Amino acid sequence: MSLHMRAIVSSPSLESGMCKSDVQVAGQQPPKSKRPKEQGDNRIKPTNKKAKPKIPKIKDRDSADTPPKSQSIMVQAMDGGRFQKPAATMSLMAGQTVELRCKGSKVEWSYPTYLDTFKDSRLSVKQNERYGQLTLVNSSSADTGEFSCWGQLCNGYICRRDESRTGSTYIFFTEKGELFVPSPSYFDVVYLNPDRQAVVPCRVTVLSAKVTLHREFPAKEIPVNGTDIIYDMKRGFVYLQPHSDHQGVVYCKAEAGGKSQISVKYQLLYVEVPSGPPSTTILASSNKVNGGDDISVLCTVLGEPDVEVEFRWIFPGQKDERPVAIQDTWRLINRGLGHTTRISQSVITIEDFETIDAGYYICTAQNLRGQTTVATTVEFS
Question: Can the keyword Transmembrane be found in this entry's annotation (predicted)?
């Protein structure tokens, strides 16, 4: 082979660009349309075009800004010692034992609140060396719901959820004569807040069940149009933008396999008070008191019906351990047009008023959204 031919073979750029017709077989005449190459001919024609530099593509998984892809760490224990990944939704007969495992040395679990509320002994959650294990025996339709797990990323005693290692499945436990997930009461209250969704929790135990929503009076079916109200089999009927026209008594009806069932009834109450820290006022029975008289100071909060309020008091005789009586109460009230409000009150009472009882009475009311502090003075007359 000539020096010229060796240069062609060893050049990567020419080798990659050479097609089958570029190779000349010995003894074969070149095509008439092409003249034979002379010694020193350049096989690459000169061009004035500037070559654009190739920028290597960066794969998504190599990008620091892209979160790691989540992988399911959950498996279900089957008969014969086999394991398989559970589907997003499963239907099981009530009475069956369910065993779920999630890979990891630190695994947290979430499961239907019914099992947690009653500290059910049928449920067992264990952490083994390489996996977490959840076992539910003698299952019932009341256990229908979401079972999920996630790994923990820990730095010392501080741990956070690892979003890249999770697993979940929603299990329908089908039980004869139970189309709805049983409710602990025969009548329940659902509060309609104008600034958030409200849910009528008509959940079914049969995946194929047809569920409708009905008003008790006037008796009629409430249309589920996907705009104001939708049905979510994992939650129930969801009011997307609740308003006062939605209030009243409703119930759900389920049909499956030629059978039908009516749910418990739900009282829908519209809430007037917006979300936020407690709206608090304070009032003393008298701001000037004679020695030996009794005095009471009342702290009042108007708030959402389902939001609890805690009270704390600071009073003049506190450092001297002055005996006082403190009583907390709450009730629901209607404030016109069916608007429902929760009124929470705390009253502090001092008997046989003394000099040390004069001064500032400070009340702090707190809920999940914040706290409000108010004060009033009581003077010795």
Answer: no
The residue among 235, 233, 267 whose CA lies nearest residue 250 is: 267
pLDDT grade, residue 29 (50/70/90)? low
**CA 244, CA 192: separation in Å to the nearest integer?**
8
Residue 255 has pLDDT above 60, yes or no: yes
Last residue of a domain, one of 174, 202, 230: 174
Tokens representing residue 292 in the block: 């030996």
Give dist(CA 119, CA 121) in Å, integer.
6
Q: Can you give the residue range of the structural domain that contains 230?
A: 187-271
Q: What is the pLDDT of residues 150-185, one digit of tens each?
A: 999 988 888 899 999 999 999 999 998 899 998 877
Structure tokens at 220: 């009629």
Asked if residue 294 belongs to a domain, the reply is yes
Q: Cα 351 vs. chain centroid, distance in angstroms?
A: 49
Query: What are the tens digits of pLDDT across the range 268-288?
Result: 988 766 667 888 999 999 999
Looking at residue 247, what is its pLDDT? 86
- Cα gap 364→367, rounded to integer Å: 10
Q: What are the Cα distances from residue 116, in Å, to 110, 111, 138, 149, 161?
A: 9, 8, 16, 15, 20
Spatial contact of 265 and 215, defined as CB atoms under 8 Å apart: no
Q: Is residue 22 part of a domain?
A: no
Dihedral sign for Cα 371, 373, 374, 378, please: positive
Rounded distance between C-alpha atoms, residue 372 and residue 310, angstroms: 11
Q: What is the pTM of this model?
A: 0.59
CA 239/CA 262 separation, integer angstroms:
20
287: phi then psi, degrees, rounded to nearest 5: -95, -5
Domain with residue 287: its CATH number is 2.60.40.10
Per DSSP (E only), the strands in 130-287 are 131-136, 145-155, 158-174, 187-192, 198-200, 210-215, 220-222, 229-232, 236-239, 248-256, 259-262, 265-271, 279-284
Mapping DSSP to helix (H, G, I), strand (E, B) and coil, where does residue 45 land? coil
- What 320-327 contacts at long range (C-beta under 8 Å, 24+ apart), as own/partner pairs, is 320/356, 322/350, 322/354, 322/356, 322/357, 324/348, 324/349, 324/350, 325/349, 325/351
How far is residue 264's CA from residue 253's CA, in Å, rounded to a whole number? Answer: 10
